């Protein structure tokens, strides 16, 4: 592909991003952000670029299934990416006329390739326009069928169907291709949700208070990250499910709390808000550059109780001392399979061999957290995945190895009160938020310090 970019052209910018994701394993969300800032894309076209980039990635396997019968002979990989993003517009975007999608694709093919490439692109897209796309009923294997229909790797569909059954798996995979809601968390130390709603409305945004988490606002129009309310520290951008683990911690002002995997600080700042900025909160993360993000957000929000540190949570006792904290949060590194809606590349990059390693890290972090906790203190374990090995599997392994820890029911906001026996698995299709897992444990009173390490 020639490097002859078409500045300001949305489809050309989408091709650059999708090609880098395919070819250099770049992260689509980071690249999209950079491209929106630097590719001369007008404010009017920002939404369209986001939609084409994420939509094409979300439906990639389906698009390839549709393209296959029309691709006689090999095309260069970048041309296939161009065909995918053009077909995506033709099939999924009502507001883009098919003619426009095809003409743009031909122009890009000419500029980035040559007239021969343009003619192939024109031929394939016009043939699909005339002949239509094939049905999923041609696929007899049920796992393969859901995989192609929803564009998730077959191993993942198989794994989920073993964990949750076929129906739930299909529901989840279909949900993962929807546009996620835009939600923000109100900084309740500084304002009420009603006051922040007024601020946002006065800036021309539209939002409503969520019916589930009271401090969560669902923004239906405008960009909250660019608002004055954000800049002045009245809101944080956060998914609604991500707001739940902090409820499970049952916090009160004045406690001593540790957030063991804290960056970029979404939950640490929420903890500070629930503690009304009184007490002590230590926020640890492995990476210096990520810890900086916690500091920046805490400063923007005006929270004074957060003390950040760089380090390995698996050596937390050495740093902080045993049996010190009233509450410990382990919002652990995980496969991220609950956030596919926001980061569609995850479903193509994760590998089945990742899960054992992740569970070991999660288990080690929990083991350390148990030692850091005071008797009667509460430990909350959360992940943004739906994988049961990392969730229930890790939690049960932890309980088995630590008889001094007991599972307690997960405390949740009033509107979400569901009967739970200590483990809560939220699916992306439950209320439109990310998939999340939450477990809560209490250290038995008078229990000896637990030094189990395996
Ligand atoms: C799911 S993210 C945490 C998100 C964060 N709690 C929030 O709400 O913004 C997991 C974090 O764990 C960190 N991490 C991974 N291994 C770690 C370890 N051994 N000790 C401490 N932090 C670790 C990663 O750098 C990553 O920032």
From TrEMBL:
Gene3D superfamilies: NusB-like, Sun protein, domain 3, Vaccinia Virus protein VP39. The active site is at residue 384. It is found in: Cytoplasm. It is an enzyme of class 2 (transferase). InterPro entries: MeTrfase_RsmB-F_NOP2_cat (IPR049560), MeTrfase_RsmB-F_NOP2_dom (IPR001678), NusB-like_sf (IPR035926), NusB_RsmB_TIM44 (IPR006027), RCMT (IPR023267), rRNA_ssu_MeTfrase_B (IPR004573), RsmB-like_ferredoxin (IPR054728), RsmB/NOL1/NOP2-like_CS (IPR018314). Keywords: Cytoplasm, Methyltransferase, RNA-binding, rRNA processing, S-adenosyl-L-methionine, Transferase. PANTHER family: NOP2 YEAST -RELATED NOL1/NOP2/FMU SUN DOMAIN-CONTAINING, RIBOSOMAL RNA SMALL SUBUNIT METHYLTRANSFERASE B-RELATED. This is 16S rRNA (cytosine(967)-C(5))-methyltransferase. It comes from Planococcus salinus.
């Amino acid at each position: 592909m020639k490097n002859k970019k078409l500045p300001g052209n949305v489809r050309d910018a989408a091709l650059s991003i999708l090609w880098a994701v395919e070819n250099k394993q770049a992260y689509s969300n980071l690249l999209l952000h950079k491209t929106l800032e630097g590719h001369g894309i007008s404010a009017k076209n920002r939404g369209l670029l986001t939609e084409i980039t994420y939509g094409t990635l979300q439906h990639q396997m389906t698009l390839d299934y549709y393209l296959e019968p029309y691709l006689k002979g090999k095309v260069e990989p970048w041309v296939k990416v161009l065909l995918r993003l053009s077909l995506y517009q033709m099939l999924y975007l009502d507001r883009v006329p098919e003619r426009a999608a095809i003409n743009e694709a031909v122009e890009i093919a000419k500029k980035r390739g040559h007239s021969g490439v343009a003619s192939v692109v024109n031929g394939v897209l016009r043939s699909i326009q005339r002949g239509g796309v094939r049905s999923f009923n041609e696929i007899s294997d049920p796992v393969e069928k859901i995989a192609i229909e929803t564009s998730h790797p077959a191993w993942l569909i198989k794994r989920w169907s073993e964990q949750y059954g076929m129906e739930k798996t299909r529901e989840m995979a279909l949900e993962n291709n929807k546009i996620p809601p835009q939600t923000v968390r109100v900084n309740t130390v500084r304002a009420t949700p009603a006051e922040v709603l007024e601020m946002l409305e006065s800036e021309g945004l539209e939002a409503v208070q969520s019916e589930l988490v009271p401090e969560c606002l669902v923004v239906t129009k405008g960009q909250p990250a660019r608002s004055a309310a954000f800049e002045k520290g009245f809101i944080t951008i956060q998914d609604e499910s991500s707001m739940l683990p902090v409820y499970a911690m049952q916090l009160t002002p004045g406690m001593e709390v540790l957030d063991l995997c804290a960056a970029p600080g979404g939950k640490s700042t929420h903890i500070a808000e629930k503690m009304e900025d009184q007490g002590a909160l230590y926020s640890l993360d492995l990476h210096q550059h990520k810890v900086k993000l916690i500091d920046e957000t805490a400063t923007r929000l005006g929270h004074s109780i957060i003390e950040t540190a760089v380090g390995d949570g698996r050596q937390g006792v050495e740093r902080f001392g045993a049996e010190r904290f009233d509450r410990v949060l382990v919002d652990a590194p995980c496969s991220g399979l609950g956030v596919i809606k926001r980061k569609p590349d995850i479903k193509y990059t994760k590998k089945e061999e990742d899960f054992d390693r992740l569970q070991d890290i999660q288990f080690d972090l929990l083991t350390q957290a148990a030692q850091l906790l005071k008797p009667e203190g509460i430990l909350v374990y959360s992940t943004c995945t739906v994988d049961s090995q990392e969730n229930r599997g890790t939690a049960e392994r932890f309980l088995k190895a630590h008889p001094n820890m007991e599972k307690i029911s997960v405390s949740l906001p009033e509107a979400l009160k569901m009967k739970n026996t200590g483990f809560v698995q939220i699916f992306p299709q439950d209320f439109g938020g990310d998939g999340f897992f939450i477990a809560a444990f209490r250290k038995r009173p008078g229990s000896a310090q637990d030094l189990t390490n395996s």
